[in-house]
Amino acid sequence: MKTMLTEKRPLGKTDMLVTPLGLGCHEMRLVTPEEGARIVLAALDAGLNVIDTAECYGQSEEAIGRALRGKRRQECYIFTKCGHAAGLELPDWSPQLLEQSIERSLKRLQTDYLDLLQLHSCSRAILRQSEVIQVLMHAKEQGKVRYIGYSGDRKDALYAIRMGVFDVLQTSVNIADQESLDLLLVPARAQRMGVIAKHPIANAIWRYEQLPPDTHLQIYWRRLKRLDYDFLHGDLDEAVGIALRFTMSSPVDLAIIGTLNPSRFAQNMAYLQQGMLPVEQYEMIRHRWRMETWWRRIFPGGRRGWRGWN
Fold first, then answer.
1. Do residues 288 and 19 lie in contact, with contact meaning Cβ atoms separated by under 8 Å?
2. Which end of the chain is more exposed for a tag (fewer CB within 10 A), N or C?
3. pLDDT tens, residue by residue, 269-310
4. pTM
5. Contact partners, residue 11, CB within 8 Å, separation at least 6
6. What is the mean pLDDT of the chain?
7. Cα–Cα distance for residue pair 149/255, rounded to 1 Å
8. Which of 57, 150, 220, 229 is catalytic?
């Protein structure tokens, strides 16, 4: 019998069959391409078949290209993102920037095509510019890109879904950010879009006793202080497992996890070997989120302790 560990799932209406976990390469901006390449190869050896990066993640694209040149390119799907200049002297999101960014990514990744190209968290105003979408569609027609997607959250992501042009949505799904479960995933599934969960373990932010310096991490830290799930007060590894299994028990196709420690691949897959969360535990996490967000909607700024939720 297949388990969450061994199965490969269709990614929406695409022809890609993906493993439940993929490697996120944001942290590779902190290491050399040689070190990054070793992490990519370790991910492939562990059985992962999705590598997800972006034009602005340091030298991660070069690291992936170094690792996958030759026969190993056929062992995985390469996903990248575009939109930020990241060294190109053009305005973010301009059609000219997107065209050059695609060519640069292909060169860095040492590949003739991308399995998925995603717009990188742009606004509705950008999405309304037909020239932006036309660049992606043209790259698809030329065979440089097999599928196109949108990476982002909230109402911008909802607008992207409703456009009906994207094959895949990448969005935040985790114990500290469940908005997509109520706002995005149902319409995305109605469009037969593939769904990729980013931040699936909420950066394990509860491991910090004090407010972390990174602004993005502070949001999750504050939220989890208020949500106060009981399992966050026990063993860290057990809590990470519950958090990951919560995300994978949601209607997503795969989760992208970034790490510089290859031993984490086996550990994360071991969590998934335990299967989906029991329904009662999953619904407890959902109930806590619903109750806290209900209070925030009813009493914005009025309930003690709400300041800093976002």
1. no
2. N
3. 999 999 999 999 999 999 999 998 876 655 555 444 444 456
4. 0.92
5. 17, 18, 168, 194, 196, 253, 254
6. 91
7. 15
8. 57
Name all domains of the chain by residue range, CATH numbers in brackets.
16-205+250-279 (3.20.20.100)
Asked about 159 being catalytic, the answer comes back as no
Query: Do strands 168-172 and 194-198 pair parallel, antiparallel, or not at all (unpaired)?
Result: parallel
**What is the tens place of the pLDDT at every residue in 90-136?**
999 999 999 999 999 999 999 999 999 999 999 999 999 999 999 99
Q: Look at residue 107 in the predicted model and tell me its pLDDT.
A: 97
- 278: amino acid identity, one letter: P
